[in-house]
Amino acid sequence: MQVKALTFAVALVAATAIPAAAAWAEDFIIVQSTTSTQNSGLYDHLLPQFQEASGIEVRVVAVGTGQAIKNARNCDGDVLLVHAKPAEEKFVTEGYGVSRADVMYNDFVIVGPADDPAGIGGGADVAEALAKIKQSEAVFASRGDDSGTHKKELALWNAADVDPSSASGTWYRETGSGMGATLNVAIGMGAYTMTDRATWIAFGNKQNHRIVVEGDTRLFNQYGVILVNPERCENVKAEMGQRFIDWILSDEGQSAIADYTRDGQQLFFPNARMS
């Protein structure tokens, strides 16, 4: 009789515990995002604050913007936070996203070796700098991964009236990798590359590489956030996803972004507004 009573008690505890555990396991969202926000350490700073305020865990998939958008189109994720505004707006227009809002910005820079074989150091005209890289056939490492950084880089080559794909495998090297890996390749090869400033500041293997071109308005780097459309993707946790978006656009979230620094430098600048 005692054994039966004990068995019943254990079964009763298990039966009541399983729904609670299942509910707890669902208290998370998936954010499809870029490698720059992850590599810079921003999420390590932001997400614990959001979880404390909301009780919602955020799981980040950090890939290039192009891949992040593809993943979101395939209903793999609840929120998209990337940095390629035309592609983001297309995502919304085609019905995959509910709406888009600006979140924050920083800028891109060109980094290169100290000996600066293309002679572009100190320049502020990025198209002129890229033209000089092409003319000198100095090695340039491109992400080549359809990321937001790669999309911007290709637009800048176009502004310089240069088609780098015609030199693929010679002075123009495509890594097909994220920003951190591409920086390592560039440094190993003594090559130039383009990176967002936040990743560069946080990057630990600079060796003798330095920023050689910065300040051109065309290097502006805007980040946007979008809720994946639950009418297109039934699995989207729309309420929790919107709570994350509302928080990151709120005064609290925007202050948290502004407060994040590395080596005394602010990495991202909040500018929340609907677009």
Mean pLDDT: 91
Largest sheet: 8 strands, mixed
- Highest CATH level, the class of the largest domain: Alpha Beta
The H/E string reads: HEHHEHEHEHEHEHEHEEHHEEE
Estimated share of beta-strand residues: 15-25%
What class would the helix/strand composition place it in? alpha/beta
Indicate how many domains the architecture comprises.
Answer: 2
Distance between the termini: 69 Å
Q: What is the helical fraction, as a range of percent? A: 40-55%
What low-confidence regions span 5 or more consecutive residues with pLDDT below 50? 1-25
Total beta-strand segments? 12
CATH superfamily assignment of the largest domain?
Answer: Periplasmic binding protein-like II
Envelope shape: globular
The appropriate CATH architecture of the largest domain is 3-Layer(aba) Sandwich
* CATH fold name of the largest domain: D-Maltodextrin-Binding Protein, domain 2
Q: What's the gyration radius in Å?
A: 22 Å
Q: Can you describe this structure?
A:
There is one protein chain. The chain is α/β, with parallel strands linked by helices and 275 residues long. The chain folds into two domains: 127 residues, Periplasmic binding protein-like II (D-Maltodextrin-Binding Protein, domain 2); 113 residues, D-Maltodextrin-Binding Protein, domain 2, CATH 3.40.190. The protein is built from eleven helices and twelve strands. Strands 1, 2, 3, 4, 7, 8, 9 and 12 form an eight-stranded mixed beta sheet that branches. Strands 5-6 form a two-stranded parallel sheet.
